[in-house]
Amino acid sequence: MLRDDALRERLGRLAYGGDYNPEQWPEKTWAEDVELMREAGVNLVTVGVFSWAALEPEPGRYTFDWLDRVLDLLAANGIAADLATPTAAPPAWMIAARPEVLPVLADGSRLTFGARQHYCASSPVYRAGAATLVERLAARYAGHPALAMWHVGNEYPGVDGCHCAVSAEHFRRWLADRYGDLDALNEAWGTAFWGQRYGSWEEINPPGPVLGDPNPAQMVDFRRFNGDASLECFTAERDILRRFTPDVPVTTNFMASYKLLDYWRWAAEEDVVALDAYPDARDPIGQVRAAMNFDLMRSLRGGRPFILMESATGPMNSRRRNSARPPGQLRLRSHQAVARGSDSVMFFQWRASRFGAEKFFSAMVPHAGTDSRIWREVRELGAELRDLAPVAGSRVDADVAMVWDWRSWWALELRGRPSTDLAFHDQALAHYLPLWRANVPVAMVAPDADLSGYRLLVVPNLYLVSDAAATNIARFVEDGGHLVMSYFSGVVDEHDRIRRPNAFQDLLGVRIEEFNPLQVEEALTLRWSDGSESTASDWQDLMRAEGAQALASFTDGLFGPCPAVTRNAYGRGTATYVGTGLDDTRLRQVVLDAASAAGVRPTANVPEGVEAVRRGDHLFLLNHTGEEVTVAVPRPCVDLLTGTRHEGELRLEPLGVAVLSVGQIRPEGAVPRSAPSTGARNFPHQ
Ligand code: GLA
Q1: Is the CB of 308 under 6 A from ligand 1?
Q2: Which member of 237, 310, 377, 494 is catalytic?
Q3: Ligand 1 pocket, residue 589 CB under 6 Å
Q4: Which strands, in side-by-side order, build the sheet including 274-276?
Q5: Among 24, 85, 256, 612, which one is most buried in terms of CB atoms within 10 A?
Q6: Of 236, 119, 113, 115, which is closest to residue 167 (Cα–Cα)?
Q7: What domains, with CATH codes, occur in the chain?
Q8: 225: helix, coil or strand?
């Protein structure tokens, strides 16, 4: 049994809880804490995330007694602990004695003590201190009845790359491992440009302040290295924990679609993916961003359920204006996480802090206490989540995959590109939006992943691509898959060196000659094959069809009439290429046409603004609108949340949720994966 399955079995239902920081409170509060936790249906809390100073107040003097009492109390009340290693907050005594633990920023300044995450991931002093403490912690609590999961550190990587001498030396060793010899490095980094050739390893440093733009290959490698340096910290702690508790799952909290770490690499090293999700309560498409993040987290370990480790019951404190959540949104968005594969709903934090940098951050028990809207919502949500026990462990199947690649993301957003306004996350969201609106489940994939289980592959942007990944994508289409790929893809190899021809030239059947980023206000006219017109913005490829058919062409612009959107038959599949910025309606049309051709169908046909997600035997209906809506139900079924039996249709109140026990049915009219595509239109708004 995998360790995440063991956790689920132990909890017996979805996890509910949050970060619990009893060290911030007098001990007399603790009894009330657990009483309220029971009242709210809490069954898992994260303990001790920043408690290094509380556990080791002086070098080598340990004060575990308070944590003993906390864990005993939790165990006695049937609440499990996600026990943290407190290594994200090295204590003041360590910093005073060994200031070299503090990281150095790119401008050469060293951080000071006074917040958290203030460590250099390469520092042997930090690593040794962390290892000693983690060993003590693991030895003491292995076998403790409360221990259900280990939570290593917090939100790696802390700083965006340390530039100290120790890190520089570590970077050189990492490069030597990667390239073997200097000639290979000089070649990969293109150091013939601007006379950057290196004659010895000692000459190489992390990219620091330079005049103009730094070497892009060096930048991308430094990013990879930083991730690996942090990952070494994580795996070192994990390995200690595994020695003492081989069956207890180990995780660390990810920050959603976060740029600095390649989470494909990280997820492979942990037992369960855990997510910290803090969408803006007032963002009009917050539910879409949230859905995309949930899909990414679920996909990181091949579709296995993830843990929503932190979210907010109310306002945050990190934005310019931190709005309260509208009544009902906490419930709706929590169910959305479960619908999309979370086996938990957890928050930062249990009790709102009285002091410190986050005292205005909301909590399960707010400053206003239990006579409050937030507490009532927290209690009601806890009761509902108990009823969703049958959902735990089940999966969300997807016929559509979207490529998500951190290395390409890093390289794309360096300076010195045709347009520095082209951002991966924006592109990903634009391509995800039509699929979300059409209620088509999406799995995120690495470009070199096994794609054989999908019908449609969406590539919003893949600027940097390895040979292996390019071949993998081409093979997917050759074998009958359908592809939608957007502009500025396949442009460079994994060292950010220009590819000529473009990596996808044959697959797309187009030859791209020039890139012409449009100015912010500039719009061109596209004529589609049915004679209709639309506007194009942001980008224009000058391309020639070499086998592909034009679906839309520019009618104006620098280059005069030329193809803008093309489709190419390749092997048994088709490859659609979008060489410009389409408006929402046209991008939706292109993506959903390809989905239809691939035989993809929506999970359910529901009113606009209602999200329908199948997770295992259950159909989640989530009404993100402020209006009551009527939704057709696919067969007679029971709503797990209310116990009500529905037949024909049901009504969902504004921000309402239903979780219908629909059993193993395929969406109406679904065709088996192996069936040839009919080209039928499967989406009502097409
Ligand atoms: C992150 C951290 C928490 C807390 C919250 C709220 O998710 O992991 O410690 O700081 O943000 O800001």
Answers
A1: no
A2: 310
A3: no
A4: 253-254, 274-276, 307-310
A5: 85
A6: 119
A7: 1-14+275-391 (no CATH), 43-272 (3.20.20.80), 400-597 (3.40.50.880), 610-661 (2.60.40.1180)
A8: helix
- Tally of residues, the chain: 686
Instruction: Identify the DSSP state of 458.
Output: E
Would you call the peptide bond into 157 cis, given omega within 30 degrees of 0 as the criterion? yes
Q: Which of 356, 362, 361, 312 is nearest to 115 (CA)?
A: 356
What are the distances in angstroms from CA 134 to CA 85, 131, 242, 248, 295? 6, 5, 11, 15, 32
Q: In this predicted model, what pLDDT tens digit does every residue of 82-94 receive, in sequence order?
A: 999 999 999 999 9
Predicted confidence at residue 678, as pLDDT, reads 52
User: Which letter, b or e, does each residue of 227-262 get, where b requires 16 or more Cβ atoms within 10 Å of its Cβ?
Assistant: bbbbbebbbebbebbbebbeebbbbbbbbbbbebbb
The pLDDT > 90 percentage for the chain reads: 96
Four-point Cα dihedral 552, 555, 559, 564, nearest 10: -10
Residue 492: strand pairing partners: 464, 498
Calpha distance 265→320 (Å, rounded): 33
Indicate if ligand 1 lies below 6 Å from the C-beta of 310: yes
pLDDT value of position 683: 84
Q: Which of 61, 230, 227, 228 is nearest to 132 (CA)?
A: 61
Distances (CA, A) of 590 to 402, 558, 562, 566, 597: 15, 24, 18, 10, 11
Query: What are the DSSP E strand ranges found in 277-366?
Result: 307-310, 344-347
CB 154 within 8 Å of CB 117: yes
CB count in 10 Å sphere of residue 495 = 18
Q: Is the CB of 154 under 6 A from ligand 1?
A: yes
Amino acid at 243: R
pTM over 0.90: yes
Residue of minimum CA distance from atom 4 in ligand 1 = 348
Count of C-beta atoms within a 10 Å radius of residue 284: 8
Site to substitute for ligand 1 among 51, 358, 362, most atoms within 8 A of C-beta: 358
Q: Whose CA is nearest to atom 5 of ligand 1?
A: 348
pLDDT, average across residues 394-408: 98
Tokens of 19: 């970060």
Structure tokens given for 333 = 């968005």
The dihedral of CA 381, 382, 383, 386: what is its sign? positive
Q: What is the dihedral of CA 666, 344, 244, 50, to 10 degrees?
A: 150
C-alpha 378/C-alpha 458 separation (Å) is 38
Which two tokens mark 69?
Answer: 């009492």
Calculate how far, in angstroms, residue 134's C-alpha sits from the geometric centre of ligand 1.
21
Distance CA 319, CA 202 (A): 42
CB 405 within 8 A of CB 490: no
CB crowding 57-72: b at 16 or more within 10 Å, else e: eeeeeeeeebbeebbe
The answer to whether the CB of 155 is under 6 A from ligand 1 is: yes
The mean pLDDT value for 331-360 works out to 98
DSSP E strands in 572-617: the ranges are 573-578, 580-582, 610-615
User: Which residue is catalytic, options 155, 270, 377, 611?
Assistant: 155
Q: Average of pLDDT values for 640-658?
A: 97
What are the beta bridge partners of residue 639? Answer: 660
